[in-house]
Amino acid sequence: MNRVERFYDKVLGILTNGELWINIGLGSVKIITIFVLSTIFLKIVKLALHNVFKVRQKAALRISERREATLLRLLDNVVTYVVYFIAIIMILDTLGVEVKAILAGAGIVGLAVGFGAQSLVKDIITGFFIIFEDQFSVGDYVRIGNFEGYVEEIGLRTTKIKSWTGEVHILPNGSINQVTNFSLNNSMAVVDVNIAYEGDIERAENVIRELLAELPAKYEDMVAAPELLGIQSFGQSEIVLRVICETKPMRHWFIARALRKEIKLRLDEHGIEIPFPRLVLYNRQEEAEPVQKTMKSNA
């Protein structure tokens, strides 16, 4: 019973210690205040960054919109990490934890981990050079290895690519060895038009050229008027004419579909047929029968 009574007295002394509860209350208030202020400060800093980039959009000297979007996304992430790291340090200090000892120990541990986390360091260094050299930016359409799609996010460690079917691929920056960027320059739409051998090729070319001259006023994604190169190849039942058109970046697929539709409708208006596969049957039996009759007569 003596042990129970002593334990009971100890617990009762703790519960009735007014100074302890005051310290707990003040600590809780400080922690909540730190969390609220860090959240407000983070929103203010992000708002300021967005406003700075909006002002730069109106400046005479400015970087590309692609790079602005990438830098803005990256700065948002960096500011978030820094603010919350400082908030956690302040909360630990409020709880009476020796922050200086933790930081000193973290430096030693970080040095030891750095040797074992070489892939992480490689990811961060590669991510830095991707952004610094502007190899690709958020919104670009790229091909990295077996993955192809629009860049959703570029971080110091990973890059997110969203394919046209909706999948999001997360790639470590250190694994990015070769990148094909389709969004830096204008694209080229290529359309092949089949004309029957029996058709009038010169008339078909004139009809197509007249149509191509009208299309830039209809499609703003065309950088220049489409061009008819001429006969591309001879098929089994058709002559292939090739049409090319320079378009804005990544709009070549849309323009190619539009060209096919416009050319088909215009050829139909002028009665020019697009050929279909033809099959010619050759019956050898019909030639074999006369030969057999001749042989019988000679016998």
UniProtKB/TrEMBL annotation:
Domain Mechanosensitive ion channel transmembrane helices 2/3: 77-118
Cell location: Cell membrane
Location (main, coarse): membrane
Gene Ontology MF: a single term: mechanosensitive monoatomic ion channel activity
Keyword Membrane recorded: yes
Membrane-spanning segments: 20-49, 70-95, 101-121
Domain of life: Bacteria
Domain annotation Mechanosensitive ion channel MscS: ranges: 120-183
Gene Ontology CC: one annotated term: plasma membrane
Membrane topology classification: Multi-pass membrane protein
Keywords for the protein's UniProt record, in alphabetical order: Cell membrane, Membrane, Transmembrane, Transmembrane helix
Domain Mechanosensitive ion channel MscS C-terminal: 190-274
Family indicated by similarity: Belongs to the MscS (TC 1.A.23) family.
Functional note: May play a role in resistance to osmotic downshock.
Protein name per UniProt: Small conductance mechanosensitive channel
Species name: [Anoxybacillus] calidus
